[in-house]
Design brief:
Layout: H1 5-17, H2 20-27, H3 31-45, E1 50-52, E2 57-59, H4 61-88, E3 93-99, H5 101-118, E4 122-128, E5 142-146, E6 155-168, H6 170-176, E7 190-193, E8 201-205, E9 211-213, E10 218-220, H7 223-231, E11 236-240, H8 241-250, E12 254-255, E13 265-272, H9 276-292
Parallel strand pairs: 3-4, 3-5, 7-10, 7-11
Antiparallel strand pairs: 1-2, 5-13, 6-11, 6-12, 6-13, 8-9
Length: about 300
């Protein structure tokens, strides 16, 4: 049959981007070259892998089955090439990283100086967004995502978990009292997220033994904004430790209802599309990050 890696790469790129033109741009090839590679692959396999709609190329049933095998084959070859390349040269080039503003500020940014010193040939471009973005649409190489992943077409690497806890400022608790029970929260200003309602489920049991869903009196789209409001004494909020760890250690914030808190965490993962040249930069960044996250999450 003699299926080639070029044909597999063309097929995967068109699936990931939705069109031959976008796939060719991702691969740095001509549209006609990618189109011919797809035609050869379908001819060798004796089946139609992709069907053209009005706006995108969509997988046939056979294409959906073949895609997983194609990704596995290309990934194995990529990993072998990367291992050889890393042993003989330093990665270089641009690496575009996306993360929520709070994670970028409290975890990534403090480590950037050390990373640039270790890998001076990598040019970093840091982008923040509270919403989950499309990596291809935003030309992003690597994204740090908090919570459950939904996009199975992305490669993922777990970075760790960060505990959730309720916090407030000493000033707020002095003025309003410290709640002793979950029911006491109804007499307090509960702050939460305006655009991510799942984050308004606090690690406490309600009267029915379920996790407590709160309706915020004061809400914001950004975790960092909520942290600032808490520091200013505006109310009680539930945030991950990576955002409030230093505040708790320095006494600027105090944990509320610690004895009632359930053991709940947010998972933190790095996601990316695999590309041979790019993944060398991704690998050294993730290795660097992973070695330094202990005590930061």
């Amino acid at each position: 049959m003699n299926v080639t890696l070029e044909e597999l790469a063309a097929f995967i790129a068109v699936v990931d981007t939705g069109s031959i033109t976008a796939g060719a741009e991702q691969l740095g090839q001509t549209t006609s070259g990618v189109s011919r590679a797809l035609h050869r692959l379908e001819h060798k396999l004796g089946t139609t892998l992709l069907r053209r709609t009005t706006r995108r190329h969509e997988l046939s049933d056979e294409g959906r089955t073949f895609l997983d095998h194609a990704r596995t084959i290309v990934a194995c070859v990529d990993e072998a090439e990367e291992a050889m390349a890393l042993s003989r040269q330093r990665p270089a080039g641009r690496l575009r990283i996306n993360a929520a503003p709070s994670f970028m500020r409290h975890v990534i940014t403090p480590l950037i100086g050390e990373f640039r010193k270790a890998w001076p040939d990598i040019t970093l471009e840091l982008d923040t967004n509270d919403r989950i973005i499309d990596l291809l649409e935003h030309r992003t190489d690597l994204a740090i995502r908090i919570g459950t992943l939904k996009d199975s077409s992305l490669h993922a690497r777990a970075l760790g978990v960060s505990r959730l806890r309720l916090v407030a400022s000493p000033d707020y608790l002095t003025r309003h009292g410290c709640p002793a029970t979950v029911n006491d929260l109804s007499h307090h200003t509960m702050m939460g997220f305006s655009q991510l309602p799942q984050l308004n489920r606090w690690p406490l049991h309600d009267a029915h033994g379920e996790e407590l869903d709160i309706t915020p009196v004061l809400s914001a789209s950004s975790g960092d904004t909520l942290r600032t409001l808490a520091l200013e004494g505006q109310g009680i909020v539930c945030l991950a430790d990576f955002m409030t760890r230093q505040d708790l250690e320095d006494g600027r914030l105090v944990e509320v209802l610690a004895a009632k808190r359930l053991d709940r965490h947010q998972s933190i993962q790095a996601v990316y599309y695999r590309n041979t040249q790019l993944s060398r930069r991704i690998r050294v960044f993730l290795d660097f990050l992973g070695e330094r996250l202990d005590g930061r999450l």
